[in-house]
Design brief:
heterodimer; A: alpha+beta; Aldehyde Oxidoreductase, domain 4; 3 domains; seven-stranded mixed beta sheet; six-stranded mixed beta sheet; 18 helices; 24% strand; globular; B: alpha+beta; Ubiquitin-like (UB roll); DNA polymerase, domain 1; 2 domains
Chain lengths: 724, 158
């Protein structure tokens, strides 16, 4: 557990003083502590300067004008939580959405947060903020009741006012708190508004700040400038793991305005302009010693991962347990099964390719208590990056502030603070603010990848068409969504971490995409083996009614299996459950018999993530996940050999474009009585296996490696075999 | 080298480095940061601006070669506080997620509609093929451009 405890207390107190009087509602995350530690309770507020305990999940402030400011450590990367979280607050507080402002991802102003990943913002932060909002509303009603000397039970809160319907008196929230500072801690048992009564949450509110996005006015980290700022470039090794043998920086140093910083293998240049920094980088004369040791290439990575176990799971292996799961007697069940199928599936390393590359602006200020460092950077884990930067610079955590402007996407690829650390080191050396924006090539070569992996599946089906035995061995992809959603009586599921030759980490939905590709491809193959329709086979094997529903709805909307298809067309289906989201996708593909070109013609995805907070935002996430999934399904793969990335440019690494996009139909399954869950990840994971099954129907070729068709499908080579 | 360019109606005379791209001049010298860096090789369209009536990838244009050019960036589309119809259509359709690609795609769409005021969905997709939206909002972008076209954006300035 990362230490908490008011390390930013002094600055926060100053800031809260600035906010002035009003109502401050603090969510104390009691579940993090067995007992509240001494001093973590709110003390009686000193005038204008309430104290904030360290173990806080979020807080909210209402000023004398009724403006609501909510503080959360979550960050906005395009997934829309700046909007959906504000909707939830506005709903419980009974104020218009426009009066709510979110301060996000600022390690000085917002409470500690693990990070924005794992589809946790909606189920966790959303629920917390609803409680914060509801508590604030209750407190305001109490204040009005005290003011009027009436029973709070008869009062109503709406449109930013508390009203007494008996007397028609009403007071604005700002009036209720004016001139005073009132604090309240969240009542964990506070009654939340049921979805049936939602008026702000549950609606398709447009993206907060959208106007600044379409005008280009929004400042991403890479757009920021501060006075006296220098631009940086970093010297990169020619291959992964190479070490710096020698450096001659004299020519670079001789360029006016240039400073070269070297610290071990870290070498960076700073200059007053980008072209000068680029010239200085080009003037560095370095020699490197390549890494020693095994160096697999992208061609033999599958074998390498299988035979090179790692002792423990590593980055990218989150989202599930590395402990083997076993139930029943799988060996006996496999032996007894009348139908049995064994296959292997592989997935490649892929890159996130966030359109805004890593960027950071670091500024050191000299203050009485010592230096302070502020770093603006686009990271999904601002607090972790704060600690990372502090450690790299040898500064205490509480002297480092990380601020995350709304960022140009991440998809799990910005959990770390490479650019932040680099810019901060240089700023510390030169004593001036330093901005660093990675190039696209640096992003490809020096960020991290979705893990490559190999998955072996061995399964049996009984005489009734029920999957009776299931073994699943995943090498290196990760354990997320590794266990089947089908109630298979005999199963053994094991995740085997491997030593990875490339740096790997989190990616949208983690290993759920790889595990669903293997599992659902295998299920489709089993259905084919027992000559059952793949939708009917799934429905027969599913016992979870919500999973059943999304499969049925996707199939119905798709018109499964549809009329006789044109030659070269095929359809496929896949489904799954992950992070609280149920997903089913039906896809139709076409394959050009001349060129082998593959196109996904249409895709229908049904998705259930509980009570829907913002239907339009949800559709946008689901549709976007499907489009992103096309790349990993059909053509995205990192090529590498001897520690060198072979395709570090968009000219060589293909991502989905307009022409790749199918007709997309999204079916939202709203569950007003179920908790709202996240939707940024799970919708991506059923596309690849649905497309794989569709390609089989279209061509008779089973494709068991992601990406499936980087250069189309060579039909002639596979004709007649029906397998690859 | 000294160049004279007109950007969003303002004339600028400035010294540029032979290695500088038009994108760098717009962002770092003129502070017009609505135009984005995405790849530096003209493959993503985040840096799209109008040179005259044509959409170009400003990251591939040496600043020197822009001498004498009339350039419109995303900052030049808004007039008197009113969004350009294409910007308004993107807002109406919520045709973005992280929106880092949006300025470039808006500029490419403005040029597309000027050349073809009533494009089909296929023509829009083909016309915007060099623009990447990594968040995958392509279907909404097509809807936004069609909405703008229906509203007569192809006839709007610039």
């Amino acid at each position: 557990m990362i230490a908490r405890g008011g390390t930013e207390g002094a600055s926060r107190r100053e800031f809260l003083k600035m906010l002035g009087g009003g109502l401050l509602v603090v969510l104390v995350t009691r579940d993090l502590l067995a007992e509240p530690a001494p001093g973590t309770r709110l003390t009686a507020a000193a005038p204008g300067a309430p104290q904030i305990p360290g173990d806080v999940g979020a807080w909210l402030h209402i000023d004398a004008n009724g403006a609501v400011t909510v503080f959360t450590g979550k960050v906005e990367f395009g997934q829309g939580i700046r909007t959906s979280l504000a909707q939830e607050i506005a709903e419980e507080l009974r104020v218009p959405l426009s009066s709510v402002r979110l301060v996000m991802g600022d390690t000085m102003l917002t409470p500690f947060d693990m990070g924005t990943f794992g589809s946790r913002s909606t189920p966790q932060m959303g629920t917390q903020l609803r409680k914060v909002g509801a508590t604030a509303r209750e407190r305001l009603v109490d204040l009005a009741a005290e003011h009027w000397h009436v029973d709070p039970g008869g009062l109503t809160a709406a449109a930013g006012r508390v009203t007494d319907p008996r007397t028609h008196r009403s007071l604005r929230y700002g009036e209720l708190t004016a001139g005073r500072t009132i604090t309240a801690t969240v009542n964990d048992a506070v009654a939340l508004t049921p979805k049936a009564h939602w008026t702000v949450a549950g609606t398709s509110a447009p993206h907060v700040g959208g106007r600044d996005l379409v005008t280009g006015r929004h400042q991403y980290t890479s757009d920021m400038r501060v006075p006296d700022m220098l631009y940086a470039k970093i010297l990169r090794a020619p291959s992964i793991g190479a070490t710096l043998a020698s450096l001659d920086a004299s020519a670079a140093q001789a360029i006016p305005g240039v400073v070269v910083t070297r610290d071990g293998d870290f070498v960076g240049v700073t200059a007053p302009s980008v072209p000068t920094a680029a010239k200085a980088l080009g003037a560095l004369r370095a020699t490197w010693a390549p890494a020693s040791g095994p160096e697999p290439s992208s061609r033999d990575i599958a074998d390498y991962l299988r035979r090179t176990p790692a002792p423990d799971a590593g980055p990218g292996h989150e989202g599930g347990s590395a402990e083997p799961f076993e139930r029943g007697d799988v060996t006996a069940a496999l032996a007894a099964a009348p139908h049995r199928l064994t296959q292997s599936y592989t997935v490649a390393y892929i890159a996130h390719v966030p359109l805004e590359p890593r960027a950071a602006l670091a500024q050191i200020t000299h203050e009485a208590g010592g230096d302070r460092l502020t770093v603006w950077t686009g990271t999904q884990r601002p607090f972790a990056v704060r600690d990372q930067v502090a450690q790299a610079l040898g500064m205490p955590n509480d002297r480092v502030r990380v601020i995350v402007p709304d960022t140009g996407s991440g998809y799990g690829g910005k959990h770390t603070g490479e650019a932040a650390v680099e810019a901060a080191r240089l700023a510390q050396k030169v004593g001036r603010p330093v901005k660093l924006v990675w190039t696209r090539e640096e992003e490809f070569r020096w960020a991290y990848f979705r893990p490559a992996g190999v998955i072996d599946v061995d399964a049996g089906v009984d005489a009734n068409g029920i999957i009776s035995a299931w073994t699943f061995d995943n090498y290196n992809s990760g354990p997320a969504a590794i266990r089947p959603p089908y109630p298979i009586a005999n199963q053994r599921v094991i995740f085997h971490p491997s030593v990875s030759p490339l740096r790997q980490g989190s990616y949208r939905a983690l290993a759920a995409t790889a595990n669903h590709f293997a599992r659902e491809s295998h299920v489709s193959e089993l259905a084919h083996m027992v000559q059952m329709d793949p939708v009917a086979f799934r429905l027969k094997n599913i016992d979870d009614p919500r999973l059943h529903d999304v499969v049925q709805k996707a199939a119905d909307t798709f018109g499964w299996p549809g009329p006789n298809r044109q030659p070269g067309h095929g359809v496929g289906v896949a489904c799954g459950f992950e992070k609280g989201g149920y997903v089913a996708t039906c896809a139709e593909v076409s394959v050009d018999h001349g060129s082998g070109d593959v196109h996904i013609v249409r895709a229908v995805t049904a998705f259930d993530c509980g009570a829907i907070v913002n239907p339009d935002g949800l559709r946008n996430q689901i549709s976007g996940a499907l489009v992103q999934g096309i790349g990993g399904a059909l053509f995205e793969a990192i090529e590498f050999d001897h520690g060198v990335i072979g395709n570090p440019h968009l000219a060589d690494y293909r991502v989905p474009r307009f022409s790749d996009v199918p007709a997309i139909d999204v079916v939202l399954v709203d569950r007003p009585d179920e908790p709202s869950m996240g939707a940024g990840e799970a919708p991506i994971m059923a596309l690849a296996p649905a497309v794989a099954a569709a390609l089989f129907e279209a061509t008779g070729v089973r494709l068991r490696a992601l990406p499936m068709a980087p250069s189309g499908i060579k039909l002639a080579a596979a004709s007649g075999s029906g397998a690859r | 080298m000294r160049i004279d360019i007109e950007v969003n109606g303002s004339r600028h005379s400035m010294d540029v480095d032979p290695s500088q791209t038009l994108l760098e001049v717009l962002r770092d010298e003129l502070g017009l940061t609505g135009t984005k860096y995405g790849c530096g090789e003209g493959r993503c369209g985040a840096c799209t601006v109008l040179v005259g009536a044509h959409a170009v990838a400003s990251c591939t244009i040496p600043a020197q070669s822009a001498n004498g050019a009339t350039i419109t960036t995303i900052e030049g589309l808004e007039h008197d506080g009113h969004l350009h119809p294409v910007q308004q259509a993107f807002l109406d359709e919520q045709a973005f997620q992280c929106a880092y690609c949006t300025p470039g795609i808006v500029m490419a769409s403005v040029a597309l509609l000027r050349a073809n005021p009533q494009p089909s969905a296929e023509e829009i997709a083909r016309g915007l093929e060099t623009n990447i939206c990594r968040c995958g909002t392509y279907p909404r972008i097509i809807a936004a451009v069609r909405r703008a076209a229906a509203g007569g954006a192809g006839e709007a300035r610039p």
